[in-house]
Amino acid sequence: MTIEEFEILLSPQARKAIEENIQRNPAEIALYKHIEHPAIIATQVKRLQRAKSKLPSLYKVRAIMPPKAYEQSSSELCAERKRLSGESVLDLTCGLGVDTIALSSRFKRVVSCEKNSVLSKITQHNLSLLGLDNVEVKNCSAEEYLSSTTEHFDWVFADPDRRGERGEKLVKLTDCSPDIITLLPRIKEVSDALCIKCSPLFDTAEANHLFGDCSVETISLGSECKEVNIYINSKPATLAAEAIGLFRFEIPLSGATTAQPQNPTKEISEYKYITIPDVSLVHSRLTLAAFSGVADIWSNTGVALSVTEPQKVLGRVFRIENIFDLGSKELKKELKGKRIEIFRRDCTISNADICKKFCVKEGAEQSWCFTKIDKKSVAIKMRKM
Question: Where are the beta strands (DSSP E) in 190-308?
């Protein structure tokens, strides 16, 4: 977004036009001749409509939404999960300010760095719309601020830019901007605690290779991994998985390596419930630890089976209707012509191959899990609870 577009959106006429057209089709707004700058108004309405569920607080005050900053921002639900609080925090990567806003409710003072001069002005404007007076937005890079500050903060927070110059996605922290690994010695002089938000593709095991004993959490929303957060402070290191809206599973870091798979101790037909582990558990490699003592059978990358309905598990629980050998004629007969929701765990056959082999289409008519039980490939017909 240019400074000229920002200034246009600040005008009373533009704000009135946005408010009057907030429910309308942006494509139609762009053709209106009775309002000034219809294309700019239409684009802003489009982004606000998309932000209604992702960023409800900013939507409510009709905040200004630059395109790149919006696309790279966290949802408010994810931003609010950060487990840090205190008197003061330094946010090295302000952007649109979604994480900054969440931090402002847990710290008395927030200092946030944004090197883009236009985005810095936009974020300050949006913060004023929200009535936040405990946030200072500094128009400078993280490197510039760290090199000049003499302050000490309770926490430093960083969400490095994970887009390259050509728009490609970056996963390694050393490829992102700012380079937290390089800045780490100076960050430790400024604060005793650091939180880093990483790509949802970030390998959680890599955190301990980079930073030693640190806490790592994987956050999911709607069965989709959203972010991996690293906490470097004086507290004992833990590994955690959290599905927003469900609950959190957290254990000491050492506990994740001691959990073991559990093989069947009963006839397969005796198991009545199947749990598909949440993506946050799988990504954190916590499936074994989470189901130990909760289910009767569990595997590293697969599913959990139990005789009785499991309680408080981080995953989707289904009632088992039938279990078929993957190569049986009965399975082909049962599936032919159906529309099925496909779950694959520890299964080498792709969704497309399943559809082709069994003459099915993907849909929501029935739920099926293709997995292995005691090294045997099976298909499990499931009923939603």
Answer: 194-198, 215-221, 224-232, 238-243, 248-252, 273-277, 297-298, 304-306
Of residues 192 and 72, more confidence is placed in 192
Q: For the chain, percent helix, then strand, then coil, each to nearest 5? A: 35, 30, 35
Against a cut of 0.70, is the pTM above it? yes
Query: For residue 365, what pLDDT is reported?
Result: 87
Sheet holding 376-384, edge to edge: 297-298, 304-306, 273-277, 315-325, 376-384, 366-373, 339-344, 361-362
CA atoms within 13 A on the CB side of 261: 11
Cβ neighbors of 346 (< 8 A, separation 6 or more) are 299, 300, 301, 302, 371, 372
Domain boundaries defined on the chain: 3-54, 71-255, 268-384
Strand duo 273-277 + 304-306: pairing: antiparallel
Q: Residue type at 295? A: A
Lowest mean pLDDT among 60-69, 126-135, 272-281, 299-308: 299-308
What is the CA angle 223-177-91, rounded to 5? Answer: 75
What is the 8-class DSSP label of residue 108?
E
CATH architecture, range 71-255? 3-Layer(aba) Sandwich (3.40)
Output b/e per residue, 77-100; b: 16+ Cβ within 10 A. bbbbbbebeeebbbbbbbbbbbbb
CA angle, corner 214, sides to 212 and 218, nearest 5? 125
